[in-house]
């Protein structure tokens, strides 16, 4: 159940996501997307430090997909222009994501996962969503008969 912390040892999760940690940020390709998670009407924080490898209290590496704070802003900073997916981000976070599944929450008779991209319903596997600049992704889990009130956009700070 949420909130979901970051893994104590991120390396195996990063490898499972098909990502590589580097000793420095690469900004040849640099953009941001935003992720909102709402469970039963409550915002679930996206933790700071996703995509970071920390050893002995020091950051020793980070991936092209990472978070610096709990704002929900996902940083995509890569040496190559390749597609990165929401599934990769959740895998490195160590949280399950798939059709009808968000962490330990699954679709059932009374509750359902709904996914939105820029305010529009997304009906495929949420793990396949490819990040785009200034994209707003909302994962909503709640009562089947409840309206999903989700943001259609995020106001990124100037320069992001």
Give a description of the structure.
The N and C termini lie far apart (31 Å). The chain is mainly beta. The strands form three sheets. Strands 1, 2, 5, 6, 10, 11 and 12 form a seven-stranded mixed sheet that branches. The mean pLDDT is 96. It is built from two helices and twelve strands, in the order αββββββαββββββ.
Question: Would you list the SSEs in sequence order as H and E?
Answer: HEEEEEEHEEEEEE
Number of helices: 2
Rounded to the nearest angstrom, the radius of gyration is 15 Å
Low-confidence stretches: none
How many strands, what sense, and barrel or not for the largest sheet? 7 strands, mixed
Question: What would you say about this model in short?
Answer:
By secondary structure, this protein is mainly β. It has helices at residues 11-16, 86-93; strands spanning 29-39, 42-43, 52-55, 58-62, 65-66, 73-78, 97-98, 101-102, 105-106, 111-117, 120-122, 136-143.
Please write out the topology:
Layout: H1 11-16, E1 29-39, E2 42-43, E3 52-55, E4 58-62, E5 65-66, E6 73-78, H2 86-93, E7 97-98, E8 101-102, E9 105-106, E10 111-117, E11 120-122, E12 136-143
Parallel strand pairs: 1-12
Antiparallel strand pairs: 1-2, 1-6, 3-4, 5-6, 7-8, 8-9, 10-11, 10-12
């Amino acid at each position: 159940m949420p909130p979901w912390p970051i893994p104590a040892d991120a390396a195996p999760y990063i490898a499972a996501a098909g990502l590589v940690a580097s000793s420095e940020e690469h900004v040849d390709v640099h953009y941001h997307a935003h992720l909102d998670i709402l469970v039963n009407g409550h915002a679930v924080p996206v933790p700071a430090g996703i995509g970071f490898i920390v050893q002995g209290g020091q950051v020793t590496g980070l991936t092209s997909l990472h978070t610096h704070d709990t704002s929900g802003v996902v940083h995509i900073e890569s040496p190559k222009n390749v597609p990165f997916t929401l599934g990769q981000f959740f895998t490195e976070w160590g949280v399950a994501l798939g059709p009808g599944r968000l962490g330990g929450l699954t679709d059932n008779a009374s509750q359902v996962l709904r996914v939105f991209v820029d305010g529009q319903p997304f009906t495929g596997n949420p793990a396949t969503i490819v990040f785009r600049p200034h994209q707003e992704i909302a994962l909503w889990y709640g009562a089947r008969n409840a309206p999903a009130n989700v943001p259609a956009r995020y106001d990124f700070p100037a320069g992001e």
